[in-house]
Amino acid sequence: MSNSPNILNQKEILENLFQQNRNIFIESGHQSLDRLRQSAIEEFSLSGFPNSKMEAWRFTDISSLIQREYGFDFRNQSRQFDISTIFSCEVNNLDTFSVTLLNGWYVYQTTPLTRLDNGVVFGSLAKAIEEYPNLVEKHIGKASSATKGGFVALNTAFIQDGLFFYVPKGVKVEKPIQLINIVDSSLPVFIQPRSLVIAEQDSELSLVHCDHALSHTPSLTNAVLEVFLMPGAKIDHYKVQNKGKNSALFTSTYFKLHANSEVSSNIMTLNGGFTRNFVSLDLAEPRAKAHISGLYLVDRNQFVDNQILANHASSDCHSNQLFKGILDDEARAVFSGAIKVHRDAQRTQAYQNSKNLLLTPQAKVNTQPHLEIYADDVKCSHGATIGQLDANSLFYLRSRGISEKSARQLLMHAFADEVVKKISIEPLRQRIANMVDKRLKGELSICDQCVLHCSDNIPATFNLDMSKL
Amino acid sequence: MLNITNLSVSIEGKNILKNFNLEVKSGEVHAIMGPNGSGKSTLAAVIAGRDNYNIDSGEISYLGQDLLAMAPELRAREGIFLGFQYPVEIPGVSMASFMRTAINEVRKHKGLSILSGGEFLKLMEEKKNMVEIHSKLTTRSVNEGFSGGEKKKNEIFQMAMLEPKLAILDETDSGLDIDALKVVANGVNRMRSPQNATIIITHYQRLLEFVVPDFVHVLFNGKIVKSGGKELAIELEKNGYELIKKGANGDYATN
Fold first, then answer.
1. Which residue in B52, B76, B92 is closest to A400 by CB distance?
2. pTM of the model as a whole
């Protein structure tokens, strides 16, 4: 697989693209960023795309995705327009700062960087590189260096735009930031958004991140998000994925947790042709806490892969992983929950659980824990279940007059709810619960989509006229 | 109402019920007693429609219909209710959404309008009070974290909500203290009417002090070996099942 000529060709195409467009990257960046790019492209040249001989990719075959031809959009000049003219996304009663990436580019009506009175800055990463070069350079690539090569190196080499979000010391941002990633293109497109979130000491924020495809054209998204939690910072992170069968989504999310900081991350995959989420929880300093949960509801030939790494580098940290999936038809899922406890990380508590319901004999899940423990005073556990709906529960419900179909839906709802109820933003929880129910009833299709409620009067598919943007 | 004729049931090749016969008419309360392993719970499960038993022969007719051909939910909608010996815990499904779904499916089947949220909550409060359930069922998951007594009261609560024609209570009295037993008995007595029937499956005579049966049957080794009035229950309480077991191949079998 690793020597497949097509994969090699795609790798060369990307290397050539980098060299040909180098001047674009350099003019938008700075020297240290350029060094980061250079080492990243060298890393990618060495590693290439991952292949199924690698442990982390054993069950995940990407060759057909890589073999497609994609277009790249390195120079998007006019990004100033009103996204609501083509797309609207809302949760009832949820007041957010809503920002949008269209094919990886930050779009806006008035200003690429919004500065609030309390010192919060959010907006385009490209603009932040110009205006806050030191702040960006100090962080970018620092958390993602935890993994080498492959998709992350490729994204790093091509850093151009994405979300930048800065919260100063002690500031609690009341409204969640809602980041909407839209892919819309009439031609197959390869996009690589790069986002950076910095939460200074004792700050608090919520980030709701949704991935949405407007067109049915094949696309590959290779997104990287780095999140820095300074001492005492708290972040609530939600990721909702509801994409069409032709979209491939690779996301790599890195949380770097300093002392006493806390992250809660929730990944909901409701539809997706091909989805791979990698999340690194780097518990770098004492008493940091990371809770991550995920729910995937996939059917037909959809594929979802969640790879979680809880890296306990310091003492007295907690991590908790709970991933649940319902698989129908021929859908496939992979879960890998890794816990690494370093020698000095005493009094670590690290838990991991993966539960799966297979609704058909053809559905398949590969779930595996990886525990590496070098400290002696730790509490760690892992568990994995793969099964069908409980026959006793089904009979109990049916014996009260509930049809078999409704009984199954109630039980699936209950199964999913263990994850859904962890969402602490109430309007979002209601909205997601509603979407999960619709999904379980087979009513949530790709056209219905985005997470957060498309306006009804907008046609399901249409192509953006790039020249008008 | 219910007519069971020559019913033989097995599970994994083991014969549980052997040419079992029973007739229950409207307005009657039948008690089925017997030692462990005699087939009492199998009988209850087969009437309710549990599908992991093999029906080897025989028929069950319920209100003139072939009960064995009906799905469990259809039996429930037609008025059969099973109070479970071991009520199932279903985390994540709230009692309210469970009962509301059930009631509305039953009402739809009867051609009645579905209950609005307000009507449903009112009905739930009323029935909760009847069985002295004090916790907020709207937020609690089905049987999750319920004590043994609460689980049994919850079965009677569901029965009161669904208003069945034929209720089968499988060891509903086991593990209850005297207060909970009275609550359960009271619930059953209130449901009693000339149109309804009840089958009480029990190990002990205790519940029958509060719910007086019209008939008492002794089930042993898959067959009814003795039938009588309420005095039979008292006799069993006094002498235990040993006499039945000894006599099963003799006097009682031919009785």
1. B76
2. 0.81
